[in-house]
Amino acid sequence: MIDSVDEIVVLKDLKKYFPVRGGVFIRKIGDIKAVNGVSFSVRRGENFGLVGESGSGKSTLGYTLVGIYRPTTGRILFKGEDIYRANKRDQKALKKEMQIVFQDPGSSLNPRKTIKQILELPLKVRNTDKGKDRSKKIAKLLEMLELPAAYMYKYPSALSGGQKQRVAIGRALATEPSFVILDEPTSALDVSVQAKIINLLMRLQQRLNLTYLFITHDLSLMRNVATRVAIMYLGKICEVACTSEFFQNPLHPYTQMLLSSIPVVSDEEEMLKPKKVLSRGEIPSPVNVPPGCSFHLRCPEEMELCSQVDPGMVEVGEEHTVRCHLFQGAKIVAPASQGEE
Amino acid sequence: MATPLLEIKHLYINFDIYGGILKVLDGVNLTVQSGEKVGLVGETGCGKSITMKAIMGILPTPPGKIPRGEILFNGKNILRMKPKELRDIRREMSVIPQDPVASLNPVFKVGTQLMDVIKYSVNSKGSLSKKALKDRAIDILKEVELPDPERNLENYPVQLSGGMQQRILIAMALVTGPHLLIADEPSTALDVTTQDQILRLMREMAEKRRVSILLITHNLGIIRQLTDRTYVMYAGQVAEVARTKDLFSDAMHSYTRGLISSVPRLTGGGIAPGIKGMIPDYMGPPRGCRFRPRCDYAMPICEKKPPIFRVGEDHEVACFLYQR
Amino acid sequence: MERSVHVDILSRGEGFRRGWYKFSRNPLSIIGLTAVLLVAFLAIFAPYVAPYPKHAGKFVNFAEANQPPSWKYLLGTDVLGRDILSRIFFGFRFSLMMGVVVLALVVPPGVILGLVAGYFKGKWIDTVIMRVTDIFLSVPPLVLALAITAVLTPNLFNAMIAISLMWWPWYCRLVYGLSASLRNESFVRAAQVTGAGTLRILFREMLPNCISPIFTKMSLDMGFVILAGSALSFVGLGVQPPKPGLGTMVADGARYLPDSCWIAIFPAFAIMIVVLGFNLLGDGLRDLLAVEEV
């Protein structure tokens, strides 16, 4: 691993398919194409936002990055090294560097373990410290999470949603990772609790020099936390831009549709939304990915080309890329994946 | 002033559990006029679901208890009604539940379930033929803009998307011709784009059929989209009520302010600090104003329960800061 | 959906107290618990509590054989003049021993195999374990028991082995289902991401979450194992005379129905009390451990 690399995580045409079995002989009859050719890179220290609705594959992407799923094809580079070609020892070291915080605090903490035992597990697995040192580390961790030390002996059921999520964050940070995937970290929390948790995450990022991949469906939240935003639809990235550009100049029709549907709480925000792109239809199942551009059935700008050919990613501005036939003339960044239809 | 369609007066609800009594609702007052769209907003644990269950008559009574208060529907207290009267009331009050997956029976066809509701909603005097039932079902599905109603009647819920399932739930709620629609977090399970479609549909339906809506949710964005007037609830007390646009532009209660400021803005501006503290333990809630421990403006008098002060047209706050 | 009311559970101790409160509100559970405790007490202290402890062994008294219940012999005597009440107390020993030993033999392997098969669901080890389980389940239990005891000599120990062989698959199946669903839980995934090894995940993350259903099944099973053991004894394959196994006693007395009916009926009632006690206790435990939402 090369520590000085600027792009800490690079994805190259990552695909994750889940086989669908059926029939009398339980043969494979199709694939759930959850992640269908994703390429992007995350820079050191940034907060890279990944937006998508349910069925977009964003959570699957996060899980594949962190090792819960193995990619079907494609490569993942961490600090320059391909994590699935690395040897066993390097892979173990990698596990320490990349961590994840799950969406639902209720189910991400083992209800039969105390907070101390939950936070201790990452330390125990490394086997580096003795019992007393571990307890000290855990006390420090709780302090960082702004939880009272006495909470060590409580069970998750005694904690509120926000407190549970703090523990989940603490568990991810216990191995001192450099890259943390936050999978909808506040979607299950009330909005006033969300504010506190997001602030904590921002503080921790500063203090511990972390790089975040922030996955959420909440665009308003994204606007205020991410440095760059990528939007995902049915397993593919549609558009990537830095945050201000993304919200001021959304180009992909899906991005515009999503932005125009958000229920906002003020008139200023209302004016910022794209002129009403009435949403139509719903996201299809990842088993039946439409041919050509996967969004064409719902797209208000659909052209004949869209149902036949899948567009590649093109660069339309500084650091702004889109996957859409409307922008054909622009410079190609990545062609459409091979073996599509 | 005309009789309100729904009026909750000084409602107190307790729960008897191991270790003591949970004093959940502490004197809730709420009105919904005919044709009005009212929102009830609050975070997890504020008591809004329990209020809704009390209105619907499905509060589990043990361990729940209603020591004081009335719920008047068209002037009559439904807490004191006999089952037969309640059944008649239930035709006039419908609920759109939260999660379509949990509310639609997966082993029956959509058409069967919808026609069941139609059948039981009709007065027992005249029963409808199978064909009439089917026609009614198709009519209502067309009204909720479900594509291809004839074919979808023969489908099972699992074959339909989330948005379509939610439309069916709306259809089932509208079939009895209710005067009040209670929508319980009607779009939490849906994507934002689908949610937008469903909320538009609900607004159209309400206006077309002149139905009142009571929208219960924690999502401030959809409150702003759908309601005329909104109640803000905290820890079993009503903190504030105002016309929705006034609530967002001119919130008075410290909790409402904190809540609204916590919502991230599309215009940027960073993340607000949130509200310090946690919701209280209902077994020993703070005396008086239950928000007092978390309020930056708490005064000694706040240990007494704040009365409701009028601060504007249709705008009331339960806070001593606004005492004349 | 989160619970709508926030209730604070302070510590493990608090949890047990709450549990007892809930448990004690169901009268049937209390009856079950009482019955089980009573039987256990009588079994353990049989030599001190039984009026005629010697009657449980080799004892013959033809002078007072076939006596109906009286003040001297509260439940009467059997064909060899032995006090039925005392023999029942000693009979409880065999019953409980059978239940405890069988469960001790059956639960560990069943649970471990179930955990492994469920965690690796879809892989070859799952197929192997579950097909073996299926094979054991497809053999009729009584036939299996007969076959085993035909090969080995009929006695209590071999009866326990026979019952164990037909009982373990149920635990495997129970835990298989739990394990297969638990492995998708976020906290298990989190442990994997943290780098925990498979053994740790199986036994420190997943097993503690299976304990409740396993315990419930164990307490319900006690009754059924005892019943199975009594059935085997009745047929002559379990506890051998002159030992006072409850099933054996029923077999002895069956011949004398309906005249000296007490010889068969009281042991049968004793079996019923034990089985019913464990059933009620198990039901109570199951209700207690069910997740409650306010």
Which terms summarize this structure?
heterotrimer; A: 341 residues; alpha/beta; 9-stranded mixed β-sheet; 4-stranded antiparallel β-sheet; 11 helices; 13 strands; globular; B: 324 residues; 8-stranded mixed β-sheet; 12 strands
Question: How would you summarize the topology of this molecule?
Answer:
The complex is a heterotrimer of chains A (341), B (324) and C (294).
Chain A: E1 7-22, E2 27-43, E3 47-51, H1 58-66, E4 73-78, E5 81-82, H2 88-97, E6 98-101, H3 105-108, H4 115-126, H5 131-144, H6 161-173, E7 179-183, H7 191-208, E8 211-216, H8 219-225, E9 228-233, E10 236-242, H9 243-248, H10 253-261, H11 267-272, E11 313-317, E12 320-323, E13 331-334
Parallel strand pairs in A: 3-8, 3-9, 6-7, 7-8
Antiparallel strand pairs in A: 1-2, 1-4, 4-5, 9-10, 10-12, 11-12, 11-13
Chain B: E1 6-17, E2 20-32, E3 37-41, H1 48-56, E4 64-73, E5 76-77, H2 83-92, E6 93-96, H3 100-103, H4 110-121, H5 130-143, H6 149-153, H7 162-174, E7 180-184, H8 192-209, E8 212-217, H9 220-226, E9 229-234, E10 237-243, H10 244-249, H11 254-262, E11 309-312, E12 315-317
Parallel strand pairs in B: 3-8, 3-9, 6-7, 7-8
Antiparallel strand pairs in B: 1-2, 1-4, 4-5, 9-10, 10-12, 11-12
Chain C: H1 12-24, H2 27-44, H3 46-49, H4 84-119, H5 124-138, H6 141-151, H7 156-182, H8 186-194, H9 198-206, H10 211-235, H11 246-254, H12 262-289
Helix pairs in contact in C: 2-4, 2-12, 4-5, 4-7, 4-10, 4-12, 5-7, 6-7, 7-10, 8-9, 10-11, 10-12, 11-12
Descriptive notes:
The complex is a heterotrimer of chains A (341), B (324) and C (294). With 341 residues, chain A is α/β, with parallel strands linked by helices. Helices cover 32% and strands 26% of the residues of chain A. In chain A, strand 11 and strand 12 (320-323) form a beta hairpin. Chain A is globular and about 70 Å long. By secondary structure, chain B is α/β, with parallel strands linked by helices. Helices cover 33% and strands 24% of the residues of chain B. The radius of gyration of chain B is 21 Å and the shape is globular. Chain C has 294 residues and is mainly alpha-helical. Chain C has helices spanning 12-24, 27-44, 46-49, 84-119, 124-138, 141-151, 156-182, 186-194, 198-206, 211-235, 246-254, 262-289. In chain C, helix 2 packs across helix 12. Chain C is elongated and about 75 Å long. In chain C, 43% of the residues are buried. The interface between B and C is medium-sized, with 17 and 11 residues.
